[in-house]
Specification:
Rossmann fold, Immunoglobulin-like, 6-stranded mixed sheet, 20% strand, globular, disordered N terminus, binds alpha-D-glucopyranose
Length: 730
């Protein structure tokens, strides 16, 4: 015993001689680190070796995406980084442990953005953050906020919108929610990671104006409004330079211009140019390989890599580690309140579900007892997308269970058909007719899956409904209309699909995206009117795929060719459309769309009146009164767009600058909502002078319930142009 104590004391003494993180000045800790320790700390902990060879502790949280290493002699703990944007992604079982480690599958990011409600988004973040904390992790690798440049990007379900303001405000709310639990976030993938095809080699060729106004703006808002602990640099190249090695992007823009105070970690890639990454300000290489540690050590010794760059990044890593639960020695429980979090998921889904069509008040359902459930998605329902955005959840409530739990009886015969087939099955006119006789209404659910690593295709069965799916809609609608009954189509999709060619057939269309593990319950609450839908589209539904300007520069027809750096949309993708993305394009050039940005119906109606603007200095406060003029309670969203006067630069007809959602308004009740923005928020980016320019002149303020439905218009005079010089060029 005595020897053990002596060794302990000696170790304790050694340790007590070494400065301790959190107890001694951080510069002292940096100075006490060996070059190998510094190199080790900048490389993720999932590699073959570590200083303290801790063996199995690499499995601190099984299936967590990554770790940073510990240096016990300096009081530096491990940290654990885990996915993803729809909830915590860890292994649900553990060897020799009968407990299940399920996490809550929340609504996908696109559905959260469809709420247009930062309060609800923050609440989801709080629940997600609590699961990160209680399962012993330190950072959630979310939110993912790349712009919806093209509807066929495989990861759009993990992303929010085609509009950078909606992206930024939603991301900031999510970051605030998650970080309120004392854990970190990793806003990703910074930047221009807008396709999955050859995502690790493809170069996004983006103009400085499109970069600044669209692809970077969401990140800028998120950083300035919520200070995420970390940013994840993306796999791709940006204008030929890997973002992970891009000093203007990661240091000049992110830190010098935007004031980002956290660390940058790479996306999960092997060794690249570690020296360039360290120099650029990429602090942490994930998941981490020993060869990267060796390269740092060797290149500092060779003089190729400056010690000041290494020390700068090491210091930022230590500052990050000091925020983490592992550093605080938080006693996590492995028992978050999953029941309570499931309720949060259900409420958020209900807040974002979007009513696209409701002819003759088909919804909410009335005098319905038996529902005929068609469509594979009614049974094989999608709670979320695939890849690192997946969650290992305890259950998924599909449409059938949701309706049964709400007291409806579901045609057993049809259910048996689908459960047996596991895919779309043809519904003949005769079969539809027979079911129309013995059910009160028909619900048809179509699903679309997508995920990381691959983009979607503009084919039937993906962007377009198949002939079989269209025949189901036609045959069922003909049969039910023949006996005076109604048909509802439910879209359980991860990204935009074509709707124009068939939307006139059914009586109602409900867009539920990938709805969370509580999807069936949320859908039933909307179909029954227990909750009045208030979701609004965060992107445009076009008439057809090739109407979208970016489509001619997107790999929608990629089927496994080999990589070729010189090949368009494979080696490089030319963002030829510039700023003309989504409503910025369709609205400005008056192109017809199937459903416009910001659109969503309600079971009630609203009136907008008495809009006012108050400007003090550069700060603008706009108020508008919204009254529920219908017969049921509901929420509305006020969307505030500004239209700039003609200037040197060609500008979109209007751009979203603020929004606000009402509380639940009872019939006849009014609420005055307030929205703020600054005059420089209306600036355009002038490449010739590399600066933001807000032209002098008279601006219009357009307040509406979608980008096409404007109810109130104000004017705002800017007497003197404002020019803000930017530093970085990417
Ligand atoms: C993946 C994804 C990223 C994820 C990371 C860890 O490749 O691009 O979003 O967080 O690796 O799983």
């Amino acid at each position: 015993m005595a020897i053990l104590c002596a060794v302990c004391t000696q170790a304790q003494n050694t340790r007590s001689k070494a400065p301790q993180l959190g107890k001694d000045p951080i510069d002292k800790v940096v100075a006490a680190m060996t070059l190998e320790e510094k190199a080790q700390l900048l490389i993720g902990g999932n590699h073959e070796f570590s200083i303290d060879k801790v063996g199995k502790s690499y499995d601190l949280v099984p299936w967590a995406a990554g770790m940073t290493i510990s240096i016990p002699r300096l009081g530096i703990p491990f940290t654990v980084e885990t996915d993803g944007p729809a909830g915590v992604r860890i292994k649900p079982t553990r060897d020799g442990d009968s407990k299940m480690y399920y996490c809550t599958g929340f609504p996908v990011a696109t559905l959260l953005a469809s709420t247009w409600n930062p309060v609800v988004v923050k609440k989801v973040g709080q629940a997600m953050g609590n699961e990160v904390l209680e399962y012993g992790c330190d950072v959630l690798l979310a939110p993912a906020i790349n712009l919806h440049r093209n509807p066929l990007c495989g990861r759009n379900f993990e992303y929010y919108s085609e509009d950078p303001l909606l992206i930024g405000k939603t991301a900031a709310a999510m970051v605030h929610g998650i970080q309120s639990q004392g854990v970190g976030t990793s806003v990703k993938h910074f930047a221009g990671n807008d396709q999955e095809t050859f995502r690790t080699e493809n170069s996004s060729q983006i103009s400085q104006r499109a970069l600044r106004e669209l692809y970077l703006k969401g990140f800028e808002i998120a950083v300035k409004e919520s200070q995420p602990w970390t940013i994840m640099s993306s796999y791709n190249r940006l204008n030929g330079v890997y973002t992970q090695e891009d000093y203007p992007l990661l240091t000049t823009l992110l830190r010098d211009e935007w004031g980002f105070k956290g660390i940058v970690m790479t996306d999960w890639i092997g060794k690249r140019n570690t020296v360039a990454q360290v120099h650029a300000g990429n602090d942490l290489m994930m998941p981490g390989q020993a060869v990267q540690v060796k390269e740092i050590i060797d290149e500092v010794k060779s003089g190729k890599l400056s010690m000041s760059d290494v020390d700068r990044n090491v210091k930022r890593m230590l500052q990050f580690i000091m925020k983490t639960p592992h550093f605080r020695k938080y006693a996590f429980t492995n028992a978050p309140d999953l029941k309570a979090h499931a309720e949060v998921a259900r409420e958020a889904a209900e807040e974002g579900i979007t009513l696209l069509k409701n002819d003759n008040n088909t919804l909410p359902m009335k005098d319905v007892k038996t529902v005929a459930l068609f469509g594979n998605g009614s049974y094989n329902f999608l709670a979320g997308g695939t890849g690192s955005g997946e969650v290992n959840k305890a259950y998924v409530v599909n449409v059938q269970q949701g309706l049964e739990d709400a007291g409806f009886s579901i045609s057993e015969e049809i259910k048996a058909l689908y459960i047996g087939a596991g895919e779309e099955i043809p519904i003949s006119p005769g079969y539809a007719k027979r079911n129309a006789a013995n059910s009160d209404i028909a619900v048809i659910t179509f699903s679309r899956q997508a995920g990381e690593g691959a983009d979607r295709h503009n084919t039937k069965g993906d962007f377009y409904l198949t002939n079989k799916e269209k025949a189901i809609i036609t045959n069922v609608t003909n049969a039910y209309h023949a006996v005076g009954k109604k048909v509802i189509v439910v879209l359980n999709i991860g990204g935009v699909i074509e709707t124009a060619s068939w939307k006139n057939i059914p009586d109602a269309i409900l867009l539920v995206w990938q709805t969370s593990q509580e999807g069936g319950h949320a859908i039933a609450d909307i179909l029954t009117g227990k909750v009045n839908p208030s979701g609004k589209l965060p992107m445009t539904f076009p008439m057809d795929y090739m109407d979208i300007p970016s489509s001619k520069n997107f790999p929608y027809n990629y089927y496994g060719e080999h990589f070729d750096a010189s090949k368009k949309n494979i080696g490089y993708t030319n963002y030829e459309e510039g700023i003309w993305v989504g409503y910025r394009y369709f609205n400005t050039f008056n192109k017809e769309v199937s459903y416009p940005f910001g659109y969503g119906l309600s079971y009630t109606t609203f009136e907008f009146k008495d809009a006012k603007v108050k400007k003090s200095g550069n700060n603008c406060v706009v108020t508008v009164s919204i009254t529920n003029t219908g017969s049921v309670a509901g929420k509305e969203v006020a969307e505030l767009y500004t239209a700039a006067p003609k200037g040197k630069l060609e500008k979109p007809a209007c751009e979203l600058k603020a929004y606000a959602k009402t509380k639940v308004l009872q019939p006849g009740e009014s609420e005055v909502v307030s929205m703020t923005f600054s005059v420089p928020d209306m600036a355009s980016f002038d490449e010739a002078t590399n600066s933001w320019v807000t032209d002098a002149g008279t601006y219009k303020i357009l307040i509406g319930s979608s980008v096409q439905d404007i109810h109130q218009t104000l004017t705002l005079k800017v007497n003197k142009a404002i020019v803000q010089k930017a530093q970085a060029k990417m």
